Amino acid sequence: METVGNFSDTSKSTFGKIAEIMGNIANRVYDSLSEMAFMTVEARVAIAQYLCNNTKDMDLFFSLPDEAKMVFVTNIMRKLSQC
Predict the structure, then answer these.
(1) What are 51-59's contacts with CB under 8 Å, separation 24+?
(2) Burial 20-56 (b: 16+ CB within 10 A, else e)
(3) Residues with Cβ < 8 Å from 44, sequence gap 6 or more?
(4) What local confidence, expressed as pLDDT, does residue 72 receive?
(5) CA quadruple 67, 69, 74, 75: dihedral sign
(6) pLDDT tens track for 31-83
(7) pTM of the predicted model, to two decimals?
(8) Cα distance between residue 30 and residue 59, in whole Å
């Protein structure tokens, strides 16, 4: 029974670390979008949600220079407005 308890404790710790990392990534996404003055809070939240749910696009977003990030975000906003 002790093994099950250890597994449970380890799992809780691991899932807690994963949740913390995910939260940090979401904060980094939102902080990066906050630097774009042309966006409303509503747009920032929508783009942050989109990027957090689409990790390939998030990877691309963070690899781009600032000027290209603005174009990328504008393209996502257009895509989301068509849905």
Answers:
(1) 51/76, 52/25, 52/26, 58/25, 58/29
(2) eeeeeeeeebbebbeeeeebeeebbebbbebbeeeee
(3) 30, 33, 34, 36
(4) 97
(5) positive
(6) 999 999 999 999 999 999 999 999 999 999 999 999 999 999 999 999 999 87
(7) 0.70
(8) 14
- Give CA–CA dist 63/12, Å, rounded: 32
Q: What is the DSSP string of 8-67?
A: HHHHHHHHHHHHHHHHHHHHHHHHHHHT-TTS-HHHHHHHHHHHHH-HHHHHHHHHS-HH
Specify the residue for token string 């998030």: 58
Angle at CA of residue 33, ends 28 and 39, nearest 5°: 160
DSSP 3-state of 7: helix
User: Around Cβ 74, how many Cβ atoms within 10 Å?
Assistant: 15
